[in-house]
Design brief:
By secondary structure, this protein is mostly helical. 90% of the residues lie in helices and 0% in strands.
């Protein structure tokens, strides 16, 4: 719990702008992963009707 509290305190020290950048990067990575899954599913459907 102490480590978690330290992490929360450290997170509070990070400027909001940087936090937003990190959030956007994570969202971007998730979107890329989802589109890759979608593309492979479409590819498989067209390849094996």
């Amino acid at each position: 719990m102490i480590a978690t509290n330290a992490a929360i305190e450290h997170y509070k020290l990070i400027p909001d702008g940087y936090r937003d950048v990190v959030r956007w990067q994570q969202r971007g990575q998730k979107a890329v992963a989802e589109s890759a899954i979608l593309h492979s599913a479409i590819y498989n459907c067209t390849r094996f009707p």
